[in-house]
Amino acid sequence: MSDNSTLQSGQPSEGTSDTVSGSKLDSYFYITERGSSVRQELVAGLTTFLAMVYSVIVVPSMLGVAGFNQGAVFIATCLVAAFGSLLMGLWAKLPMAIGCAISLTAFTAFSLVLGQGVSIPVALGAVFLMGVVFTGITVTGVRQWILTNLPFGIAHGTGIGIGLFLLLIAANSVGLVIKNPFDGLPVTLGEFTSLPVLMSLLGLAAIFGLERRRVPGGILLVIVAISVFGLIFDPNVTYQGLFAMPSFGAEGESLLGTMDIMGALNPIVIPSVLALVMTAIFDATGTIRAVAGQANLLDKDGQIINGGKALTSDSVSSIFAGFVGGAPAAVYIESAAGTAAGGKTGLTATVVGGLFLLMIFLSPVSYLVPAYATAPALMYVGLLMLSNVTKLDMNDSVDAMSGMVCAVFIVLTCNIVTGIMLGFSCLVIGRVISGEWKRLNIGTVLIAAVLVVFYAGGWAI
């Protein structure tokens, strides 16, 4: 087996030992085989953590509006991120972090609880059931089958779209791009001279320079430097302490093990469970594929290294989320910040998981990293992911253009699944009209049909 094939498989080559690889840590995570170093992985893990730590504030806040105890949800959010990321790192050995998905959190709070009047225990039962069904679909190979039948154009288009989506999320979080208050296009330029906008743009430019000079940990350095600046000069960034004992809520308010599974089996709730499952299948699967592609963790057939374990890790994490009182889990797009910082192995995700465990006791620290400190990193990653455009085969215009439709509508609709659905639809119809229907396989046609029915039926989130 050649060195190159060893790298692609992510498995140690014959004869690899602790002596050769340098340490048990190196050997366990295949750090040398994947062209990384322990230091690089630690920096990548810290970078990913800082890019997604906002979730411990956003998720409790969203669920709190629906009546969840925010202290209990804070603990649950940390536990879900720790469990999922450690599972991904130690078992799947990939640099992808898992946490409570923001989109699915919104659906749980505003559609299930507030919209349909579902009680909190039943909502958590729905999250638990969603995780069970999601895991069943994963271990039976259905998700892997979907990945296998993902046309190259749409696979790369998903990466492009997620990059644009990430760019929009980051720009909106600091007010660089805002909702247009007047008639016309939906978004417009925000207050260009505001501190968050200026610091974000300065940080983005600084990352360009540091990465060009190949400064190790350049992205992390920018996040830390801007956070320190904010602590000194921004009155909105305040030191609120370092240590805080975790609280699961007052007596009777803990969410651990409170899910009502039987209540979630009510015919009124089941459609919501299926909507969560369908959204997670294509949203999370597309994200995993995009992050793996960016980190060059694909085998010679374009499939994700240890893909089955990666897919199982995020589905099992949703079962855990329902049990501890959190929202459905998924691989975070922000994982790409860590892979951009050099993360290539499961050590990156393991670091993220460990830091979220510590976060249970260090909750005040989350207030020291303002949005404009992490926005430059996310915008940079979004721009990097646009390089997938070069991977589109313009000689096969139907495939390439379908991929571009997928990319553009991910960002225009702010929904990954919508972009994938439109991309599949254009591919199938385009192949038929162009007379290239023989290039279609049954899997692609079936996926397209299921997605169209899912949207036409009004079940999409």
UniProtKB/TrEMBL annotation:
Pfam families tied to this protein: Xan_ur_permease
Chain residue ranges for the region called Disordered: 1-20
Lineage top rank: taxon: Bacteria
Gene Ontology CC, one term: plasma membrane
Main location: membrane
Transmembrane segments: 42-66, 72-91, 96-114, 120-142, 154-178, 184-208, 215-233, 268-291, 311-333, 345-362, 369-389, 401-428, 440-460
Membrane topology: Multi-pass membrane protein
Family indicated by similarity: Belongs to the nucleobase:cation symporter-2 (NCS2) (TC 2.A.40) family. Azg-like subfamily.
Protein name per Swiss-Prot or TrEMBL: Permease
Protein source organism: Photobacterium lipolyticum
Lineage, top ranks: Bacteria, Pseudomonadati, Pseudomonadota, Gammaproteobacteria, Vibrionales
